[in-house]
Amino acid sequence: MERGYAMARKESITMEDILSAALEMTREEGIENVTARKLAAKAGCSTQPIFRIYQNMEEMSKDLFERAANFFASYYENYPKKDVFAFVDLGMAYIQFAMQERNLFRLLFLSDQRHGKSLYELLNGKSGAVKQEIARAKAAGCNDPGELFMKMWICIHGAACMAITGDYDLNEAETRQLLEESYRAFV
């Protein structure tokens, strides 16, 4: 190597590293605690790599939101589907997600900062979960599966919100029974 020329330092912190650290922080502490300095500490770097990749924290939060949405979609796709009634498995997964991932649930489903995504789009996800459930309800003879979804969704979302605040004390079997009874009542 000639004098005066130094080799460029290898980039060691990637976008993936930053987003993984940001998702972990959000899961543990909530999105409100994801600041550039705290994120840098979590990722094991200075703030420089963050701002090399992102112009600002708002730009990073868009990618983080997408990562969180994909996390929920994967959670739902891997949730065991075993109920004969439409919307029950979706409701069970949603309520369990609220109980197990409170901070991600708040970010995705209780925030007004959804980066252009509606609640329906987030819930439907890449798998088309809501569309599939609507088709199941229609195949089971429901005359207005869209209206059924709306009614079920009010029950499901309400239960999940109660889980977030600690006001929900039904166990898994009782929750499934509640959703099945709601389905039968709304059909």
Please describe the topology of this protein.
Elements: H1 15-29, H2 36-43, H3 48-53, H4 57-78, H5 88-100, H6 102-109, H7 119-124, H8 129-139, H9 145-165, H10 172-186
Describe this structure in words.
With 187 residues, the protein is mostly helical. It folds into 2 domains: 10-54, Orthogonal Bundle (Arc Repressor Mutant, subunit A), CATH 1.10.10; 65-186, Tetracycline Repressor, domain 2. It has 10 helices and no strands. The longest helix has 22 residues, at 57-78. The radius of gyration is 21 Å and the shape is elongated. The protein starts with 14 loop residues before the first helix and ends with a helix.
Global mean pLDDT? 92
Oligomer: single chain
Helix share, percent? 55-70%
Please work out how many helical segments DSSP would assign. Answer: 10
Q: Segments where pLDDT lies below 50 for 5+ residues? A: 6-10
CATH class of the largest domain: Mainly Alpha
CATH topology of the largest domain: Tetracycline Repressor, domain 2
Choose one word for the global shape.
Answer: elongated
Largest sheet: none
Determine the N-to-C terminus distance.
77 Å
CATH architecture designation of the largest domain: Orthogonal Bundle
Class per helix and strand makeup:
mainly alpha
Number of strands: 0
| Sequence of secondary-structure elements | HHHHHHHHHH
Number of domains: 2
* Range of strand content: under 5%
The Rg value, from CA coordinates, equals: 21 Å
